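Let us work through a complete example step by step.
Step 1: write down the sequence.
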Amino acid sequence: MLIRKINITNFLCYYGAANQFEFVEGLNIVLGANGYGKSKLYDAFQWVFSDGITDNAPRATPGGLKLTNAVKGDLVSEKAKAECDIGDSVETKVVIEVDDQRNGNPRKYQLVRTYRTRRTDEKTWVEPGKSEFQILEYDIVSYKPVAEAKQAEILERLIPVDVRPYVWFQGERGISNLIDTSSNGSLKNVIKRLSDIDRWDTYIEVAERAYKTAQSAFDQVLSKSQKNQVRIGELQTEQRLLETQVRRLEEQITNASQNQQEAQEKIDALSASIEFAQTISKLNQARSQAEAAYTAAVKQSDAFDEGLSRKLFSDNWVLLGTSSLLDKFEDKLTAYDDAIAIRKATANLTKQANEKLQIRLPDNVPEPMYVRQMLDEEHCKVCDRPAPKGSEAYDAIVSLLLSEPEIIQPERPRKNLKSFFRQFYANGLGMKSSIDSINQRVQQSIQEQNAGRERVRSCKEEFEAKARELQQQEQLSGIVNARDIVNSMNGATADIKKFEGDLVGDRNKKKQHEDRLREINSELSKLSEGQVPAHLTQKKTILFDLMELTKRVKKTKYQELVQQLEDTANTHYRNINAPTGAFYGTIRFIETSDGGYRPAILDNDGREVGNLNTSLVSSLKLSIIMAIVSANKTRNYASFYPLISDAPVSDFDVVKAMTFFRETANTFRQSIVIVKELLVEDTTRIGRYKPDLVRLHELRTDLQAADKTLNVYQLDMPDGVSNAFRNELEVTIQKVNC
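Step 2: predict the structure and record it as tokens.
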């Protein structure tokens, strides 16, 4: 089968109907950056042939499909759905044109798969659970529908289901699913599927039946003989017992081998789960840390809020706005001091006056007539001193003529609060700077309170986000208790060791029994001389040898196939790795105790190399895949079926990627490789890429020298369109001239 063309309409990120690729016989490269529709192009091929797209769930089987009845409306371009009016429909369609050139009868087909969804209101769609599939065959001038009953047969002829995984694969997961370097049965299954080795099982079965028939006839005649009956009976009884034991051991070996393989598969499955379990463990730890931070933030915020109430008194917030009262108190204290001073001065004057009054002469001494005489003469005759008019002495003489004033009793003593008020004022002065800064401290506390509440909000969001992430991971992986995964892994490992021991023991016993059976057959043949017709003895001997021969030939053929696969894989492996200049070693298929083989890399001294980097592991697996389809010249898979691979060189640098492209072109008649490695940043456009024309020109030149064709497309997006918004997503397809 050669794929000539694919046309994609409103399928996933491929909006509209103008999405067409035309492929050539040779190497077809589709370039696209991450998020530009590379995997969706691969899904378009899968959808047409298998009615499903890649299941990217973490615990999905690598290479597994999510069928249309599970995907439904998610197949449809979000942009096409956004533009669809209520009541209208959106049609998703992928058409692949192929040539079938086998059996000398070339035919052309169109493989068409369609899905339609209808919008009933703003948010509701009618999404059917199945797609429509049709095959059209080119007949002289046009394509005509093929009967539905013939569709499965045509698809199987175009590319058999058991071959498809080895020529169509996606990324590291898809490659690892095909070639599991940790599984002893991986290569065994490959050889069994892609060779005629199983035919020898039929030959062995026929030879065993023929031998059993001949042996039965021989035993019947021998049992009737007259000589050595006791010994013959003993040998025949032992023979039957050993044959029964050999059959039982064969069943045990088969069961142990299957159990060992199942345990290995369990480990392989758990290996992915272990990664998820480790992720879940980290997420659980992160969630616990976020929860602890949230709890601490809440406690700190609550304690701070509680402390704000106490600060009314502990930090004097209750005095907010009282600075003016201190000034008023100062004025009142000054007035108080002044009043006290005035009162004190008045009291002193009164006291002095009273004291003067208390020491005056008795009443009417001297008599008024003498007083008036002294006034007239302006001379005091009591003390014989002059008393000029207007003087204090004169006024004192005049006062002798006045009526005697009432003596004012001293004012009752009052409590002097000056020291108290002073102390109170001093306290106020000491708090003035604190009172003046209360507003600033309140504002600062409010800011701290808001910051604390923001921390609570932020920690809560972080905690909830971590909890959601953990829940999502648990739901996706199906893992709740990571410890169970570890226990299961340990149990499976122990099972493998147990079954390995069983296999070794049972195989040794089987060999011993088979050796003893040969000895019995030899002895019975000697005892049968002259008692059993020669032709029966000869027939039994020939058929026994034939049975043993078919088993040996099968083993030899199997080993030849393994060697052929190993040699071819090494050729591809060397061609991919040698030009890089780095170490790569040699592939060796090492036989295991259960009759399988596992691939390994040996160094120049024949020692197995451990801890291989991902680039070498990927090139090892890709080389084996190439060998699978190219080593069998009889079936000629590389010529009959195209390689379609998405991101096969994601672990390679550009140099190794180039060697892989060359080897792919030289191995397959047609290959379609979807990659991002031959893109460089487009400095003229923000967030966009352009083909690495230098590398592509170099590759084209190399392929032309080998008479191979290079065909290149680029997946791009219009400027201004972001792949962050699915309802705006639109991919453009550009032919690259290199």
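Step 3: interpret the result. Residues 11 and 76 are 5 Å apart (CA to CA).
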